[in-house]
Amino acid sequence: MKISTTNVQVRYAETDQMGVVYHANYLIWCEMGRTQLINDLGFRYQDMEESGILAPVTNVNLSYKHPAKYGETILVKTWIEQYTGVQTTYGYEITNQNGDVCAFGTTDHVCVKKDSFRPVPLRRVFPDWHEVYEANKKVTTS
User: Fold this and answer.
1) What does the similarity note say (predicted)?
2) Residue 142 lies in a domain
3) Number of domains in the chain
């Protein structure tokens, strides 16, 4: 299982009046991590879009544990939590420079045709991505 890492310097604009990162900014960091993972696996999301396929978010689940603050360096770890050939669930762990877990969670994505938003299996439209995702998804034991 491939785990990508992305460093983020918390900007003042990402914080609220208390100097704490506003909760919605974690979603932006998840997107940054997801993009880095896709790049690390040898692909570009832009190539997918240019071929007429999008991968919108269909579900978000984030738990906030420790406040990230202005000036901190945040580490976003991203991996493929689950992959079915149609739906991809990406996992995230966001920690601060002291190793405190600030947030963790998942986002679900389904590939759709750009013009109709009709779902299409990743395994059919991008068989090379499918192979790499199958090889790098999290392995769970019962």
Assistant:
1) Belongs to the 4-hydroxybenzoyl-CoA thioesterase family.
2) no
3) 1
CATH of the domain at 70: 3.10.129.10
pTM greater than the 0.85 cutoff: yes
Indicate whether 78 belongs to any domain. yes
pLDDT tens, position by position, 25-71: 999 999 999 999 999 999 999 999 999 999 999 999 999 999 999 99
* 40 tagged catalytic: no
Q: Tell me which residue has tokens 């690390």.
A: 40
Is 119 part of a structural domain of the chain? yes
Q: What tens digit of pLDDT does each residue of 95-125 get? A: 999 999 999 999 999 999 999 999 999 989 9
